[in-house]
Write a structure and sequence with these properties.
The chain is an alpha/beta fold and 419 residues long. It folds into 2 domains: 124 residues, Enolase-like, domain 1; 269 residues, Enolase-like C-terminal domain (TIM Barrel, Alpha-Beta Barrel), CATH 3.20.20.120. The chain is built from 13 helices and 13 strands. It is globular and about 60 Å long.
Length: 419
C-alpha cells in the first residue's frame, strides 16, 4: 500500500482574488495529489472556520500563511508514513489534532485541502478515477453511477453581486430526464437567450461571483420574470424541459426578527415570507427553494414545510451547514426535503461523506455545491458523482473556476460510458 511521503502547502488566489490554501501530497510510489480549498461569501454561522492571518500588511488580513503553517508544521509530520487509502483514519487524526468544534485551531481550509489531496493521490495510486475511488467509502448499495442534474445559477444577487437584488441565486434547472451533455447544451442556449433578454430591457449583462448576470432590478419577482421570458423565446418548454429555482440566502435579509425585501414596502414576519413564496410559486412553479428563511427561524421553516414541501424542494444550506447536528435538528423539526453538501462547511472528505449518508437514509435530496470563492480545483465534481447526488450547483456555464467543474463532469460522463 502506498504511504504518505511528503505534504506541502502554498498560498494561492481563488476566483475572487482572495488567498486560499493549496496542499500537495506525495506518496512513496510517486503518485501526487494537489487540492485547494474554496471560500464562501455568504457564510453560515454553523460552518467550520477558515484560518486567516489578520495581518493587514499581507493581503489586508486575508492571507492564509497561518493555515499553511498548520499544514507544514502540524499536519504533515503527523501524517507521514500513513497509508493513503486509510482516509477515515487520516481525517480523524487531523480532527483530533485540531481539537475544536469548528476546526478553528488548524483551520478548515488547511485540513480540507490535505484531506482532498490525500484522496486524489490515493485514487491515482489505486489506478481509479477519483469518483470511483471515493465510492468505496460510500454505502452505495445498488445505486448506479450517474451524473447529477446540474442547477445553473444564471442571475446573481445578494452578496454575490453587490446587493443589486435581494435573493442570491436565480436558477434554471434542466429536467432530470436530460443527459448531462443535453443539459449543458440547453443551458448554453438559455444563458444566451437571457443575455439577449437583458439587453432588450436595457439591463446590464455584467456578471456576479458565480458567473450569472447581475442586473439591478426593482424586485425579486422581476428576476423570475426575466428568466421565464428568456425560456419562452427558445424552443425549450418552461415547466417541462426546464424549471426555475431560488437560493434566497434569507439569513442576510433577516434583521431584528423581520425579513426585508424589495418586493414589499414593510418588513415581513416569517409567516409573511411564506405567503410571498406561496404567491410566487403559484406563478412560477418553483422546483427548488434554498434557504428561504433565516438559519435560526425554525418555527417558520417547519411552517413552510407544511405548506410547500409537497410542491417544491425545500433545501437547507446555511440552515444545515453540512453539519450532522444541524441536519438532525432540521429532520427533527421537519424543515427540509433537500440538503446542500459543501465539504468546506464541515472540513474533511470523510465527514462530508457521512452527512450525505445520513441525509440519504432519511430520504432527503442531495445537492453537492461549490462556493462563490472557488478555485480551479474540480474535486467537487468527482465527489458529487461518487455520492450519487441528485443535483450539483457549480454556478453559470462561464468563468474558469465554474467551467472546470462542468468540464470534469463531461469527462466523467465519457468515463462512465466506458465502464
Amino acid at each position: 500500500m502506498a504511504k504518505i511521503k511528503q505534504i506541502s502547502a502554498r498560498e494561492i488566489l481563488n476566483a475572487k482574488g482572495i488567498p486560499s490554501v493549496e496542499a500537495t501530497v506525495m506518496l512513496n510510489d510517486g503518485k501526487i495529489g494537489t487540492a485547494s480549498c474554496p471560500s464562501g461569501t455568504s457564510v453560515g454561522n454553523y460552518e467550520a472556520s477558515e484560518l486567516r492571518d489578520h495581518d493587514e500588511n499581507h493581503f489586508q488580513g486575508n492571507g492564509v500563511l497561518k493555515a499553511i503553517a498548520s499544514v507544514q508544521d502540524v499536519i504533515a509530520p503527523a501524517l507521514l508514513g500513513m497509508e493513503a487509502t486509510k482516509q477515515p483514519e487520516i481525517d480523524k487524526k487531523m480532527i483530533e489534532m485540531d481539537g475544536t468544534q469548528n476546526k478553528g485551531r488548524l483551520g478548515a481550509n488547511a485540513i480540507l485541502s490535505v484531506s482532498m489531496a490525500v484522496a486524489k493521490a490515493a485514487a491515482k495510486s489505486s489506478l481509479l478515477p477519483t469518483f470511483l475511488y471515493l465510492r468505496e467509502f460510500v454505502q452505495k448499495g445498488n445505486t448506479p453511477v450517474k451524473i447529477p442534474t446540474p442547477i445553473f445559477n444564471v442571475l446573481n444577487g445578494g452578496k454575490h453581486a453587490g446587493e443589486n437584488i435581494d435573493f442570491q441565486e436565480f436558477m434554471m434547472i434542466p429536467a432530470s430526464s436530460k443527459s448531462y451533455s443535453e443539459s449543458l447544451n440547453m443551458i448554453y442556449v438559455l444563458y444566451q437567450s437571457l443575455k439577449k433578454t437583458l439587453e432588450q430591457n436595457n439591463l446590464t449583462t455584467l456578471i456576479g461571483d458565480e458567473g450569472g448576470f447581475a442586473p439591478k432590478l426593482p424586485s425579486n419577482k422581476d428576476g423570475l420574470n426575466l428568466l421565464k421570458s428568456a425560456i419562452d423565446t427558445t424552443s425549450f418548454r418552461f415547466g417541462f424541459d426546464v424549471f426555475l429555482g431560488l437560493d434566497v440566502a434569507a439569513t442576510n435579509l433577516f434583521t431584528e426578527g423581520k425579513y426585508h425585501i424589495k418586493d414589499k414596502t414593510m418588513p415581513m414576519s416569517g409567516s409573511d415570507m411564506i405567503s410571498f413564496y406561496q404567491d410566487i410559486n403559484k406563478e412560477f412553479h418553483l422546483l427548488y427553494l434554498e434557504d428561504p428563511l433565516a438559519e435560526d427561524d425554525w418555527s417558520s421553516w417547519s411552517n413552510l414545510y407544511s405548506q410547500l414541501s409537497q410542491q417544491t424542494l425545500l433545501v437547507g444550506d446555511d440552515l444545515t451547514a453540512t453539519n450532522p447536528y444541524r441536519l438532525q435538528m432540521a429532520l427533527d423539526k421537519k424543515a427540509i426535503t433537500g440538503i446542500i453538501i459543501k465539504p468546506n462547511q464541515i472540513g474533511t472528505v470523510i465527514e462530508a461523506l457521512a452527512v450525505v449518508e445520513v441525509a440519504r437514509e432519511m430520504g432527503l435530496k442531495i445537492i453537492v455545491s461549490h462556493r462563490s470563492g472557488e478555485t480551479n480545483d474540480d474535486f467537487i465534481a468527482d465527489f458529487a458523482v461518487a455520492v450519487s447526488s441528485d443535483y450539483v450547483k457549480f454556478g453559470s456555464p462561464v468563468r474558469g473556476e465554474r467551467v472546470a467543474k462542468y468540464n470534469r463532469l463531461l469527462e466523467i460522463e465519457r468515463e462512465i460510458k466506458s465502464l
